[in-house]
TrEMBL record:
Species the sequence originates in: Paraburkholderia lycopersici
Classification via PANTHER family: CARBOHYDRATE DIACID REGULATOR
Family stated for the protein in its record: Belongs to the CdaR family.
Residue ranges, annotated region (Disordered): 421-446
Residue ranges of every copy of the RsbT co-antagonist protein RsbRD N-terminal domain listed in the record: 38-161
Name this protein carries in UniProt: Sugar diacid utilization regulator
Occurrences of domain CdaR GGDEF-like (ranges): 178-304
Amino acid sequence: MPPPVPPVSTRLRSRLRTLAKTPPKAVERTYETLLSLEGYSALTAAARKDIFASIAFSANLWFQCLLDGSPPTTAVMEQIAAFARRRVHQNVPLRSLLRAFRLGARELWRTCTEFAEAEPTLAHELLFEISPYLLDYFDAMAEHIAEAYLDEQHQQARWRGSLLQQLYDLVFHAPDDAARFRETVEALGLDATLPRIALAVDLDLRDHAPSVREDALDRFALSAARHFELKPDALVRAWHRERLVFWLPCVRGDSMTRNDQRAAEHAGALARAEPRVRSIGIGLMNEGAHGWAASVEEALKAVDFAPRGSGTGDEENGNAARVHRFSSIAIEESVRSSANVLRYLVSLAGQLATEADLLATLEAWFASGQRRRQTAEALGVHPNTLDYRLERIETLLGAKLDDAHWIARLDIALKLRGATQGAERDVTKKQKKERGGAKKAKSAAR
């Protein structure tokens, strides 16, 4: 609670009563300074009006306390707390709010010194009785608003967490409920019609106990928001299939390609800055509950298609090797949806596997940009040997390696073979690990 009000002389009371009737210059000076602070400069006109009203209210309240000789009532203190709670929803940082109170106190102290200069007979009372009260009063009020602000922030976090869980359930379990999806997204203060891109982040959290994992995810989400140049609340997140999922807002009016490139550039910067990131998958731009879920599935496939530590990525676009775009494998994934086409393409690579070195030659040829000299150097063979192998590939498959359609076909076939072998290796490793664990358990039982 604010400190006791000191007694005020009759002469000073008369001057204070005059000031209380008209807003002092201190209010205007405080307001002008506030608009340059973080959180205040971007406020809407309605929010700025609310800010000005709260400054005037606080200044008049201080004068009224001096005139009445009593501290603010409980009802008035609740009004002050309401101001603080509104600042949470206006995204005004607490440090800016507290600085606003310090600015207000400074401007009122400046008013006191101006009184003292104009009327020397009031100088002693203003400087040695009223000024100390002013500082104690605003210290108490700052403590009160900080408590109200933090309490509201805590309540908002719990409320937001509940909404995010509801949104998760809608996206992955009830995507047909478009009305509830829209209501939930809008309740989070977001635009439900804005397309988004999903990111699936594979994080190394092995040294984080489950009890502190949520805090680690919170810190990572803040870092992600900075790298994607977004406010933290604009970055919707979820934990899905052992991956941290983000839905990034797209730029309305930009093409899918441009939004995809932008997401990849920012994801690359995030991967470089955060060593815990094993890999990041990026889905395609989409909207609505079904679209959000589809983008997540694409992001997960992008991560799974590129095995960990493979070093593949879109380096030419400045992205880290740990970033994998679904757009880079969209054709392969389309092929996977057709069993006959998939079997055909896999069989192309299978035919080459019957003769030693042909698959390695074709892979090196693609890796070298289909340049023969570089391919021969990479393989450590004579150019004539390379020519023989490439001719043998054409003969076996009935292909033409100068035909764009055949080049695309074989490129996809090799990628599908690589992905299949990577998945098989992962399964084999898992089975070996399980067998090893079973043997240890049996030994311990003996």
